[in-house]
Write a structure and sequence with these properties.
Layout (H helix, E strand, L loop, with lengths): L1 H12 L10 H22 L4 H18 L1 H10 L3 H4 L8 H16 L4 H26 L4 H10 L1 H6 L5 H22 L5 H17 L1 H20 L6 H17 L1
Length: 254
């Protein structure tokens, strides 16, 4: 917990001069409490929920890492060997197994402590939401309270994107993806190499987690990129965007 607190304290300093800063620690605490409530609800009310299976499978993978760390690392690139995947509770569910792989490093560094793993994931999701709120408030200054309320205070957003859940990773990653892309969306500035690499990694990971959500997100982003590139000053910008988005959306639906 001290490690997470130190990381978030360093993270918060980046936003100290901004109008958002007074809301940082109260909303972060709310997010952590949301993660605790999420874990308590599923572990006590519905002990057969996905969060428990993710935890158990991540713990199995962490134990495997202690035995053969090289093979464990290779599995993120080449996939899990059959003898390991067959031991998982979520075997036969590629996206669920990928989720267990993603959280297994947290099981490794936390000695498979469920609550510490949930703390890390809640913090990651919060960081993505916070950066996205920051981008929105810089572009549309009058909307910062609405952004904070929607992303960081709305009970459903706080609860369902917290704890050891697929939504915590996906929504945190999705928010970071949009935030990294934001300079091109706002100022039409090209992304530097590092941002392009991070965006590519996030797209691949998010698509593996929830392809059906990214099948809508990517046409939106790609439509902005195409229209910015070919018709940046067109008085019919919105019409061009809608046309390109519709074509891409139909394409992604197949």
């Amino acid at each position: 917990m001290c490690i997470v607190g130190g990381i978030m304290w360093r993270f918060s300093l980046r936003f100290k001069p901004t109008v958002l800063y007074p809301y940082f620690w109260p909303t972060f605490l709310l997010k952590i409490l949301g993660g605790v409530a999420f874990g308590w609800f599923y572990l006590n009310g519905t002990p057969d929920g996905d969060t428990w299976h993710y935890y158990l499978d991540a713990s199995i993978l962490a134990q495997w890492a202690h035995v053969d760390v090289w093979a464990y690392g290779e599995s993120f690139i080449f996939g899990l060997p059959p003898e390991i995947s067959e031991t998982l509770q979520l075997k036969g569910q590629p996206r669920a197994v990928f989720m267990a792989q993603l959280v297994s490093p947290l099981a490794l560094i936390s000695s498979s402590n469920y609550w510490v793993m949930a703390l890390y994931l809640s913090s990651f999701c919060f960081s993505g939401f916070w950066v996205l709120c920051h981008k929105l408030s810089n572009t549309y200054p009058d909307t910062y309270k609405a952004a904070i309320a929607a992303f960081l205070c709305l009970p459903s957003a706080v609860f369902w994107s917290s704890g050891l859940s697929k939504e915590a990773i996906f929504m945190g990653g999705w928010s970071w993806f949009i935030s990294l892309y934001w300079p091109y969306f706002k100022d039409r500035r090209p992304l530097n190499v590092m941002r392009m690499i991070l965006v590519a990694i996030l797209i691949l990971g998010l698509f593996k987690l929830k392809y059906y959500t990214m099948a809508v997100t990517l046409p939106v982003v790609l439509a902005v990129w195409v229209v910015h590139g070919f018709w940046p000053q067109s008085p019919k910008y919105s019409y061009w965007w809608l046309l390109v988005f519709s074509i891409l959306l139909i394409g992604f639906s197949f």
